[in-house]
Amino acid sequence: MSFVYKRMIKFEHNVGEKEAKYRLYAGSAALFISVFTASIALLIIGLALVATGYSGWCPAYSGMNKSTYDANESVEETTEATS
């Protein structure tokens, strides 16, 4: 597996819905814990997880050309919610 820096500038969704939710939960927990432990490393990790979960784009995934995003998954959820 190779890492290509030029792919990192493509801002395409590459984080799936479930993974984004898990990143938001884990990042929020890390931020909460970092407040009480005064851990800068945990704060940075928490911020990165929340940012990638919220935006749906992970620069490391872009560099490795990996994606857990499924465009059909979002469409199916939307049609099920409206039915």
Describe the structure.
It contains four helices and no strands. The radius of gyration is 15 Å and the shape is flat. The mean pLDDT is 80. It has one domain (5-82). The longest helix has 21 residues, at 17-37. The protein is mainly α and 83 residues long.
- Mind telling me the C-alpha Rg? 15 Å
Number of strands: 0
Task: Identify low-pLDDT runs.
Answer: none
Structure class: mainly alpha
Q: What coarse outline follows from CA principal-axis ratios?
A: flat
Amino-to-carboxy terminus distance: 42 Å
The H-and-E topology, N to C, reads as HHHH
Overall mean pLDDT score?
A: 80
Largest sheet: none
Number of domains: 1
- The percent range for helix content is 55-70%
Strand proportion, as a percent range, falls in under 5%
SS element count, helices: 4
Helices and strands in order:
Elements: H1 17-37, H2 40-55, H3 59-64, H4 71-82
Task: Based on the model shown, name its key terms.
83 residues; mainly alpha; 66% helix
Brief digest:
This protein is an all-alpha fold.
